[in-house]
Design a protein that fits this description.
There is one protein chain. The chain is mainly beta. The protein is about 10% helix and about 45% strand. It contains two helices and ten strands, in the order E-E-E-E-E-E-E-E-E-E-H-H. Strands 3, 4, 5, 6, 7, 8, 9 and 10 form an eight-stranded antiparallel sheet that branches. It has a two-stranded antiparallel ribbon with strand order 1-2. The radius of gyration is 16 Å and the shape is globular. The model has no long low-confidence stretch (mean pLDDT about 95). The structure holds manganese (II) ion (MN).
């Protein structure tokens, strides 16, 4: 028997009815700042999950890569993202796709949050963090270095 669908009403503060807001990752497991997670949808048959991540002004997700892919739809605010060596300004309704084993990070602006939906495999490999050598290599591109080290832009 297929379970009937359900409707999670959108609430104030970018919350959804009945959805717990939890930590982005285990504290100390990886570098990140000011980010929370809500799992909105998870279905074994579809084998995917839809999560909403909310980054506070000045916050950022972990710089990471992994075999699984992401489809990210920005829902609110604005900021910048790094995908591979590309640094782009992103804002509500932009769609960012991340290919396998591609370095990526999302950073909220100094004056705005950055909230996004992220579709992902339910069963997925663990994100990898850059080694010192990989980080140096990434930072050899001035645009990437400015993104990774820079103060958040307004
Ligand atoms: Mn990721």
């Amino acid at each position: 028997m297929v379970e009937a669908g359900r409707i999670l009403k959108f609430l104030e503060g970018f919350r959804w009815e009945g959805v717990e807001r939890s930590a982005y990752k285990e504290e100390g497991s990886a570098p990140f700042k000011g980010i929370s997670r809500q799992v909105l949808f998870s279905d074994p048959a579809l084998a995917s999950e839809l999560r909403f991540f909310d980054i506070e002004p000045g916050g950022y997700s972990t710089l990471e890569r992994h075999k699984h892919v992401h489809a990210v739809m920005i829902l609110r605010g604005h900021g910048e993202c790094l995908v591979g060596r590309e640094v782009r300004a992103v804002a509500a309704h932009d769609l960012v796709t991340v290919s396998p084993m591609t370095w990526h990070q999302f950073r909220a602006a100094a004056d705005a949050p950055l909230g996004f939906l992220c579709m992902v495999n339910a069963v997925r490999d663990k994100p990898q963090l850059p080694s010192e050598g990989e980080l140096r290599e990434l930072e050899s591109d001035p645009k990437v270095a400015a993104f990774l080290g820079g103060a958040p832009k307004a």
